[in-house]
Predict the 3D structure of the following.
Amino acid sequence: MSLGTSMIVPATPADIDAIMACERRPGYEATVGRWSREEHLAGMADPTHRYFVARRADGAIAGFVMLQDVAIEADSILVRRIAVAEQRRGHGRQLLGHALHVIFDELGARSARLGVRAYNASGIALYSSFGMREESRREEQGHGSAAITVMTMTMSAETYRQSRRANP
Ligand SMILES: CC(C)(COP(=O)(O)OP(=O)(O)OC[C@H]1O[C@@H](n2cnc3c(N)ncnc32)[C@H](O)[C@@H]1OP(=O)(O)O)[C@@H](O)C(=O)NCCC(=O)NCCS
């Protein structure tokens, strides 16, 4: 899938530096997790994970998305992590669109799910714009003393197909 100047392609171990830099962008620590090189290498080797990067024409990585719980005809596949190198340039939409295409059209999952902190307005806006909806909320202990509210957002295969018919 391509849009503008970047293409969504499967990630390789050569992309791990760029993926780690993306996770570690200033300000992202409040909204997205970070893995070590070893954790990413293990994830890429794990058949229940899928990684995709947005690769620009000049080869630079504009963002990535990681799926977990991948299996054919899975009940639910988790969008574990998504982050872009530069916000509001359409890469998040491109990456999530591809992730949902893989989840529903290629893997035939019954639903997609993800966790997002309740204060992450840009993440929630992106997911809502695809038709994902809040299913539940839970409190998690943050690094400080304050608890963090994490929303689970989901989308069923039926909702995905309806939205594809409405916006082919
Ligand atoms: C969340 C994130 C992936 C969105 O990616 P992005 O490339 O900035 O978003 P896009 O430019 O593709 O925007 C897609 C849509 O999301 C919504 N959106 C994104 N950022 C928004 C913001 N700051 N305010 C309101 N809506 C926003 C809009 O609906 C937008 O569509 P529009 O441009 O047609 O209005 C990106 O901001 C990011 O990497 N954030 C830091 C890491 C993170 O929080 N990851 C998610 C963890 S759950």
Notes: The two ends are 14 Å apart (CA to CA). The longest strand covers residues 147-156.
